[in-house]
Amino acid sequence: MGTTQTTTMVRLAVFLIGAGACMAGEDVPVLKEVFKNDFLIGGAFNRRVVTGRDPQAAAIAAKHLNTATAENDFKWQLIHPRRDEYNWAPADDFMAFCEKNQMVAIGHCLVWHSQTPRWVFRDDSENALTRDALLARMKDHIMTVVGRYKGRIKGWDVVNEALNDNGTLRDSPWLQIIGEGSQDKQYDFIESAFRWANEADPDAELYYNDYGLETSKAKCDGAVAIVKHLKSKGVRIDGVGIQLHAGLTYPSIQGLEYAVTSLAATGVKVMVTELDIRTQARGYRGADIGRVTRQSTQDANADAAETQKKLAEKYAEIFSVLLKHRKDVTRVTFWGIYDGASWIGGSPLLFDRTYEPKEAFFAVVKTAQENQ
Would 103 be classed as within a structural domain? Predict the structure, then answer.
């Protein structure tokens, strides 16, 4: 089917189902039921959701989602803020919410260059750690965190965002110290993280997670190289997460299909782990949190009818690709629940700031119904 014809059909479908449901006063379809034969459908939850301080968002999550990722509560700076101190309360609250609502819990994330305290990479004299000392700290963290939730978390984002856009490894402290500037050791920190995560919970799935895999073939190829390296060393990796922080004009269908098919060809599961769609047309497209803030992504036209129509069309296009490859895609997780709590502001999700389903919501449902 041609692109123009597909776009026209999507626009018509969005209008008909959105208007029809609202005018008829019908109950809103439940996302986890809509996709029950396709893949898990989930969201990233913040503290307000899991503690009940945002009851409307919690209600959306409980009704529509069957898998959940903690937005921040498992990241190193919060769960392990000081060398001899672990802060379990936020992560425990997340787990309690998931188990109360029978949601598949995902652990995010164990090894990342960002949101990791400075002390992790420094000795008592503020000098950079040695390779062996940093490996020891990584092992302690992974064994302790994964071990605490053994048997309760389906899968872990073991290593997060280790690649540059050109597919080379990011020059992070993990690479600098553990890799020691050697080509032969460049994957050592990744390999070690996956080995210890497997040791801590042999039944949990282990993932590599990154953004831009659907817009940069080179970066996607870099993720493929990580998978192939780990497998060549006999190290278990079960899946790769495509974050899919998209925009109204990207990714292309071809780019998303390249990412899904290339990763699936390595024999791992493919997941969309952090889905949202930026509505502004200009500015930085990536997901580096050093460059993305609500201020940097402001869009005065985010709520305009034309913008919402484009948002719905892009969501429909993305889901048409994911449904086409449902045999390889096992999970789709939105990064947030509703627009008011999104990390990028604007209007990036399926529920608006008043917790109501948007045109994009009905477009996604219609796309699923048409692809059964």
Answer: yes
